[in-house]
Structures are given as C-alpha cells and as structure tokens.
Amino acid sequence: MAIPTEGESIQIHSYKHDGHIHRVWEETTVLKGTRNLVIGGNDRTIVTESDGRTWVTREPAIVFFHGEHWFNIIGMIREDGIYYYCNISSPFVYDDEALKYIDYDLDIKVFPDMTFNLLDEDEYEEHRKQMGYPEVIDQILKRNVDTLIRWIRQRKGPFAPDFIDTWYERYLTHRC
Question: How many domains would you assign to the chain?
Fold first, then answer.
C-alpha cells in the first residue's frame, strides 16, 4: 500500500459495502501520513455524491483515518466550537488514486460540549439486510461504536482538547 506524503493533496473516496461509490471529497491536504494513520485538512472542498450532485464544505475540517479502527473522524471548526462527525467505516486504504474506505451508515455526531448522538441506525439496518453484511462485520462495527464512544468520553485521539487546533495550525502553514 502506498503512503501519502505530508503536503500532498489527495482525494477521499467513500464506498458502500456493495462496492458502489458513495461520496468523493475533491481535495484534502495530508498533514501526516503513515501506513496506519492519515491526518488531513480541508476547507471549502467540493464533495460529489453518488448521484452526481455536488456541494462545497462550509468550514475548515481536520480528518482522522486509522488503519486499524473501523471509524474515521472529521473535526469541523465552526465559530461556536468544534463539531465532530464520526463515520463507522472500514479501516482506510490508500493507493495512488485516493484514500478509500467503506461507509457503514452508522454515524456519531459530537457537539462542542462533547455530548453526542448516534445517527442512522435505521439506515444501517436497512443496508445490512439489503447488502448482506456478514455477522462478523456487524459485530466489528458494533464494537467500534463502543470504542468510539469511549474515545469521546475519555477525550482520546482527535477528541483531546488541543488535537484539532494543533493540526489546523499545521494545515494553515500548507495553505500559504
């Protein structure tokens, strides 16, 4: 597997379990890239949905992908604080085309006060049946929801107090 290099601009591709493309983020700047970890930053990047519709992100964001965890985390920097959007997903892979992962529908939205909501449980159930998620995947995903909630409560990883600010400062140095 290739490793993205710091300062490189990459695309992020999200797929569904059946292999269909779900969403593409046009441009993210790599802030740290290793075999098991990619941290990136973007701001007002174009996002293309599976149906071809496009939209532009509204605020700067720091993205966190890990090669051993079945989730990824987006820290969105807004005027009233940092909001997190966490996708329950496969671990990422990176090739020369893009950073890629499978989105498994379940999401956790975290507010600046660190309260959170688990989202899209009905969508997950519908797709689990429709696409035939194996039982082992179902168990892995549910365990990773628990892990992610622990991280939120313990302020671990991207939820640590200065994590997003520190990486956002680094992102700004690449934009000059």
Answer: 1
